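Working notes for the structural subgroup meeting. M.R. asked for a predicted model of this chain before we commit to crystallization trials. I am recording the input and output together here so anyone reviewing the notebook later can reproduce the run.

Input as submitted:
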Amino acid sequence: MNSDKMLTRIGGLLRQAESTDNEHEAEAFLAAAQKLATRSSVDLAVARAHIATRERRPTPLQRVVPIGEPGKRGLRTYVQLFVAIAAANDVRCDVARTSTTVYAYGFDTDLDTCEALYASLLVQMVRASDQYIKSGSYKSATVEKIVVERAWGGRREVQRRVQAPVAAVTARLNFQMAFAARIGRRLAEVKQDVETEAVRADAAESVPTGTALALRNKELELTDFYRGTSEARGTWRGPQASAGYSAAARRAGDRAGKAARLGGAPELGAARGQLGSGRGE
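Returned structure, recorded in token form:
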């Protein structure tokens, strides 16, 4: 028997000893716990703390996640990346009007997973977009712009569509938007696979643990917490490449998103495995 199971078993005996009103039962449970602890060289206090930690029911909470300093270019794509990660980890988000802060709502393990993934993927996104810009390949593409001109002696405005070279800032924003979107799709697939496998494995057990019900209850609890806590007045609609659209930069960003390392992806499975316990800019 491994140490985790041993601590759980001893802690369970201690819990039974402490919860019964029958003095003889209490002594019997305590004696059994002490006997098992002596055989395995486990301290009773350690076993008691272990079972208390396991039985502590997690509840949703709000966490403030700093994104960047006011005025920093590209904060909206950073937010898009975090929100995409959050959506795959049962975390709701509100976004500050300046895009400098995200208010994340979820269970602590899910929030930890989001922050770990974001820290890794943000570095990869920025590095990949820097390399794309430095390569100069974006310069061969053009972007469609609308030019307003005066006609009829200046008495009338005429709009004309023209093809203009893609600016570096436009290419960078388009690249990062596509990168974040691809990451969101990849993580959503991971989540779906993990949850499907968990429900399938649960159904195969002789005594099902109710994984599907736990998933639903978790979703409802988070929804109730978000509605009761959030003060958002609208829905964050994501970044807009107001400078223009670059198909080439989007394709490059999508490729980089496909190749990005999801170093924290296994944590998605860990988060799903703990289900048994228990608006925008």
